[in-house]
Structure formats: C-alpha cells, structure tokens
Task: inverse folding
C-alpha cells in the first residue's frame, strides 16, 4: 500500500465492534525467534490487558508480526492499547539487547531512534458477526502451523490456542462477553475469564 494512501486511512472507533489488528516488526525482521523475546511479548500484552481493561478474544505472536482480536472499552482507544503494548515491549528488549545482542540493536536503529515496530497502526478492521469471529480466531491459531513453526496450534506457546483448548499454560487471559450490543457500563458479572462462551 502506498505511503500516501496509508496516511489517509482513518481508524474508526465503533464501540459495538470487535477489532482485528495486525502489527509487524521493523522491516519485518524476525526478532521474535527466541522464546525469551516471545515471553516478553506475552507478559506485556497481559499487563496491558489488566491495566487498560480491554476485552481480548484471540492473539498470536509470530516471528515478525502479531495478530490480536480485542474490544476497547471504558474510553480506551485502539491506538492507546497498541502504544502501551508496543512501547513496553520495545523498552524491555532494548535494555536486554544492549547488553547481549548489539547486532539486533544496530539493525533496529533509525537514525537516533530505536525502532522495533514498523511505523503506523498496522492493519485494523472491524469484525461484523460471530461467523467472521470464528473464522478469524481459527486463522490466528493456525498461523504458526501455516508458518511451519509447529504441527498443531496448541504446540505454539505464544497464542490463545491453548486457552481455547483448556490448557492452563496459556500466558494471557482471554476475557470477553457474549456477542451483544456493547455498553461501557456493562454488568461485570457477564465477563468471561476462562473457557470461551458460545456466541
């Protein structure tokens, strides 16, 4: 997509919709080819979920990009969520790499700036219904299989696939409500924090 066209695209904050987001690493370098780096991503995603209170339906981290399906609530916006997640990961990995992997630090400097992520908000669209939601969750969980990283989705530690399989090793909690029109003053008792509910 041309840079000029990308800059003209606007992100629509629709409180009734879930959002499918994809962000890539700087120049699509495969920075997440190490389990420690992947664990940092999972920890910071979970910290952001708890701090900002957004609902999370699915996620996966690949070597050079990640996908998430989330719903921002309580006045929090998608740009705020992405900024917190990406900046917190960048800070941790920058500190780690400065003492152990200067080759990586040099690859992600743009002038004086350390740049782990590709600039911009990445790919962002609304999910319209439950059928599309199921399809995109399946696509997200199958990414590591399609990328020849593992044989089955649950073999990959850094996604929500294990959560959906009831595996307690899932590093990030999937928290969401049933598919209904959203209101930010919802009853907290409706929140699901465990096995997924039916649409």
Result:
């Amino acid at each position: 997509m041309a840079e000029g066209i990308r800059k003209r695209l606007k992100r629509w904050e629709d409180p009734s919709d879930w959002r499918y987001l994809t962000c890539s690493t700087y120049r699509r370098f495969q920075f997440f080819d190490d389990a420690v780096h992947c664990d940092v991503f999972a920890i910071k995603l979970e910290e952001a979920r708890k701090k900002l209170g957004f609902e999370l339906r699915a996620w996966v981290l690949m070597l050079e990009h990640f996908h998430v399906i989330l719903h921002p609530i309580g006045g929090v916006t998608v740009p705020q969520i992405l900024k917190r997640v990406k900046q917190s990961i960048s800070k941790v990995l920058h500190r780690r790499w400065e003492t152990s992997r200067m080759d990586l630090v040099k690859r992600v400097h743009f002038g004086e700036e350390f740049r782990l992520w590709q600039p911009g908000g990445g790919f962002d669209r609304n999910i319209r219904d439950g059928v599309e939601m199921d399809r995109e969750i399946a696509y997200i969980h199958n990414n590591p299989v399609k990328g020849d990283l593992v044989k089955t989705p649950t073999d990959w530690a850094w996604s929500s696939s294990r959560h959906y399989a009831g595996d307690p090793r899932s590093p990030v909690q999937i928290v969401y409500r049933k598919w209904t029109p959203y209101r930010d003053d919802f009853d907290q008792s409706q929140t699901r924090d465990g096995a997924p509910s039916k649409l």
